Amino acid sequence: MSRIYYFDNNATTRVAPEVVQAMLPFLEEFWGNASSAYRFGKQVAKHVEEARAKVAALINADPKEVVFTSCGTESNNSAIHSALVIHPAKRHIVTTSVEHSANIKFCDYLQRRGYEITFLPVESDGSIDLHLLDQSIRPDTAIVSVMWANNETGVIFPIEEIAAICQSKGVLFHTDAVQTPGKLKIDVKATGVDYLSLSAHKLHAPKGIGMLYIRRQAKYQPYIIGGHQERGRRGGTENVPYIIGFGKAADIAMSHLNEENTRVRGLRDKLENTILKQIPNTLRNGAKEPRLPNTTNLAFDYVEAESVLMMLDQLGICASSGSACTTGSLDPSHVLTAMGISPMRARSCLRFSLGVYNTDEEVDFVLSHLPKIISKLRSISPLNPQHPDNDTYDVQRAKLKRQETIAEALAKAGDKH
Ligand SMILES: *Cc1c(COP(=O)(O)O)cnc(C)c1O
């Protein structure tokens, strides 16, 4: 594969070379079982505990409050599952309509199993109404689960205030903070959340390792039941090399906070402002602030995001039309539709999520190609009101035309190379 211009850091991130280096000895040399009684195992356990302390420091937790899991999805599922097992009589959950599928799909499943779920709506800028959240909590609410920052729009929720509401009502509170490391400063002691999820592959460590923070005073029932690992809170032999990598990445993420909020934010703003200025009929989705410094989500009316992505891909540019989980399906993003964006406009939206490895030159590369791609696609788009054979905004017809449009666009793009 030739050069990659990577603008999809909310989907996953490049594994930092320092992280790879930190992991290698634990694949090649120190491969013992951290739970073994002999020194060859115990020395591994010592390194696992060092990594735990680093991950804990990232969110100002006590290392004992950190449970390693296999991913962010497991962490989210585990927190909600725990609350339901602890309070079997409480069969109501409050969450939002813009959570990651790692949360929403689990809540859908629970709903089918007879639990009652309140999916809080959001405003058109992606924010939530705290008064509504407050009112939604009932005596039979087992847990409130609200993400810290949205992966599609970057919109940040007021987690401190939500935690305070939950505390005052005596209800457990979980937050999916997967998108925050290296971008926002997290302090669980100051915030008072009960459970918090992280996933290492969103902070320059490998996929397949995550963590669940469990506040010391909070009760917890394990989701994966087996050995006594993780102080009995998560069975399964510790994934030592990945835990070590996660620890190293947590260290690095703290040192990235400043750069993400200055240089990366600057690149994101340049990309966003230039697109909004140079390409007509574009708009930003979600509040400008408070928002993650690395994320921009933009609507490009009269084009299909999937076609744009294919043409960007021809140039080696990686971006996304929403979450990795909805890409490829015809369904518009549940986050954008929850914000009141029409399904047609939602299908025209692209997300660029930057990271510390992005350069000014890469942003310029995108900016030098995107306007041409959009105008080319608009000129052949059946969605475009200026298009000669467009009589209505007919979604069905657009769908039928979609394959043709993409094929045509690709052929044209191919001609140019
Ligand atoms: C990526 C992501 C997840 C899922 O994490 P995995 O480790 O891939 O399971 C959950 N929530 C948010 C907000 C995410 O961005």
How are the elements arranged and paired?
Layout: E1 5-6, H1 17-23, H2 25-28, H3 39-58, E2 66-69, H4 72-86, E3 92-96, H5 101-112, E4 116-120, H6 130-136, E5 141-145, H7 159-169, E6 172-176, H8 188-191, E7 195-199, E8 210-214, H9 229-232, H10 240-278, E9 282-284, E10 295-300, H11 305-314, E11 317-318, H12 334-338, H13 343-346, E12 349-353, H14 360-379, H15 395-416
Parallel strand pairs: 1-11, 3-4, 3-5, 5-6, 6-7
Antiparallel strand pairs: 2-8, 7-8, 9-10, 10-12
Helix pairs in contact: 1-10, 3-10, 4-5, 10-14, 11-14, 11-15
Bound molecules: pyridoxal-5'-phosphate (PLP).
Description:
The protein is an alpha/beta fold and 417 residues long. It folds into two domains: 17-253, Aspartate Aminotransferase, domain 2; 257-416, Alpha-Beta Complex (Aspartate Aminotransferase, domain 1). 44% of the residues lie in helices and 12% in strands. The chain has 15 helices and twelve strands. The protein has helices at residues 17-23, 25-28, 39-58, 72-86, 101-112, 130-136, 159-169, 188-191, 229-232, 240-278, 305-314, 334-338, 343-346, 360-379, 395-416; strands spanning 5-6, 66-69, 92-96, 116-120, 141-145, 172-176, 195-199, 210-214, 282-284, 295-300, 317-318, 349-353. The strands form three sheets. Strands 2-8-7-6-5-3-4 form a seven-stranded mixed beta sheet, with helices on both faces. It has a three-stranded antiparallel beta sheet with strand order 9-10-12. α11 packs across α14 (360-379) and α11 (305-314) runs parallel beside α15 (395-416). The protein is globular and about 70 Å long. Residues 390-397 have low confidence and may be disordered. Pyridoxal-5'-phosphate (PLP) binds at residues 10, 71-73, 100, 102, 147, 151, 176, 178-179, 199, 201-202, 210.
